[in-house]
Amino acid sequence: MTEPYDHLLEKYARLVVRVGVNVQPGQEVEISCLPEQAEVARVLAEEAYRVGASRVTIDYNDRHLQRAAVLHAPEETLGTTPEHVLDGVRAWKNIKPALISLTGNPFPTLMDGLDPVRLAKSQPVDLISEAMPLITSGQLAWTVVGAPTRGWAESVGVADTAALWEAVAVSMRLDEADPEQAWRRHISKLQARAAILNGHGFDKVRYQGPGTDITIGLAPESVWVGGSLETDDGVEFVPNMPTEEVFMSPDWRRAEGKLRTAAPFFLSSMGAMVEDLQLELRDGTITGVKAARGEQEVQQQFELIPRSRHLGEVAIVDSDSRVATTGLVFKDMLYDENVGSHVAWGMGYPSAFRGGLELDAEQRIAAGLNQANTHVDIVIGSPEVQIDGYHADGSVVPVTRGDEFVLDG
Fold first, then answer.
1. Cα–Cα distance for residue pair 292/276, rounded to 1 Å
2. How far is CA 130 from CA 114, 135, 340, 356, in A?
3. Is 231 in contact with 24 (CB distance < 8 Å)?
4. How is 271-319 classified by DSSP, letter by letter?
5. Angle, CA 353 vertex, CA 237 and CA 345 arms, to 5°
6. Rounded average pLDDT over 173-199
7. Is residue 181 in a domain?
8. Averaged over 97-124, what is the pLDDT?
9. Pairing of the two strands 204-209 and 98-103
10. Could you tell me if residue 189 is inside a domain?
């Protein structure tokens, strides 16, 4: 790397703690990671205490334990979570901790060869059901960030962990003289772009390119957002670091056409790489699935998770993306969704749906905001894919051309 590793990690921790989750004095912090990511978690914990956190907890998960469960656990216990763990998540409502989740799979082939049905059933849906409403409701500050490991570096195809850190540093703007200020400028740019989109008040958007021609309707409440969010206590935070997108939650009932992924992705819930995925949608529902790799795993998720066949997000990413400049396929959706415009099936975010935070799950669905215990981003954008906005009167306005955001405010 271009500078000492410990100094880079220190800059990283400052950015994540002070901008990502914006830890407040006296606040508790919970860090979720794998054992292989312990070094990064510890530096984050120290920085959180440095800015005034009252307590920091590191919650270690182990993918090897999940694999053992898929191979040997009784059917009735697959995907179930101990009650004391669920109680801990329920306590977030009162404690309001800042949540930091580390991503970057050190064992991308660990689940190869496992029964896809049992693997799908091993997902902790009960835990997700408790956590997701709190995370998406504006009650908590949270962020997801990468933690490079040797296994992740090998899967990406770079020389070593140091080389992956270099790519992460570029993506996270750590090469700037003042990364925190650089992020504030970047957030302002994304927010301005979202304001331009909202000013047009589109009724629907259309993505057209090789293998993709899909029209996605917006609900009257759909709102474009980007960069940062704010808790109901007024604390600004950045959910994804890095982030290069402006996004909105569409009307799940209004998607028609076909799409084709422009980049492979890692379906983490199934431990599977997915390549050349093609989907067909009718009346807002995914009705057809084909893939050169990972088709069965995608099908299993759709079959086992209610409402996963509907879209929950539409996003625009242009060629200014710092992640795209690395030229890497990170095989981690936090990064790979930021190389191009994308959509996501599953959960729609209330923060991108006007009034969504005041609605319960059934009311959100009735209003057009999908709710599901999964959220999977897939990149469909490229220089060959153009995006147009459609007004209710049928007039069409170019939004992107050649991977450039061209919409005029």
1. 5
2. 27, 9, 31, 18
3. no
4. TEEEBS-EEEEETTEEEEEE-SBSHHHHHHHHHHSTTTTSEEEEEE--T
5. 90
6. 96
7. no
8. 92
9. unpaired
10. no
Helix pair angle (5-15, 38-50), 10° resolution: 60
Quick one: 221 and 107 in the same domain?
Answer: no
Q: pTM value?
A: 0.89
Q: Which helix (H) or strand (E) holds 336?
A: helix 333-336
Amino acid at 339: V
How much is the pLDDT for 279? 98
Looking only at the bridges linking them, the beta strands covering 204-209 and 386-390 are antiparallel
- Distance from C-alpha of 250 to C-alpha of 5, rounded to nearest angstrom: 42
If one counts every other C-beta atom within 10 angstroms of the C-beta of residue 72, the result is 7
Burial class (CB in 10 A: 0-12, 13-18, 19+), 236: middle
Amino acid at 171: S
Q: With H, G, I as helix, E, B as strand and everything else as coil, classify residue 181.
A: helix
On whether residue 206 sits in a domain, the answer given is: yes
pLDDT 10s digits, 230-248? 998 999 999 999 999 999 9
Using alpha carbons only, give the angle 352, 355, 356 rounded to the nearest 5 degrees: 60
Name the residue type at position 198: N
Whether residue 13 is found in the same domain as residue 62: yes
Segments forming the whole domain that contains residue 46: 5-171
Q: How far apart are CA 46 and CA 25, in angstroms?
A: 14
> Which pLDDT score, from 0 to 100, does residue 5 have?
74
Amino acid 304: pLDDT: 87
List, for residues 357-375, the tens digit of each pLDDT value.
889 999 999 999 999 989 9
Contact 231, 23 (CB under 8 A): no
Please check whether residue 176 lies inside any domain of the structure. Answer: no
- Quick one: how far is CA 386 from the chain centroid? 23
* DSSP output for 10-36: HHHHHHIIIIIS-PPTT-EEEEEE-GG
Binning pLDDT at 50, 70 and 90, where does residue 3 land? Answer: low
Which of 152, 171, 190 finishes a domain?
A: 171
Residue listed under structure tokens 């405010």:
409
Omega of the bond prior to 242 within 30 degrees of 0, cis?
yes
Between CA 242 and CA 238 the distance in angstroms is 9
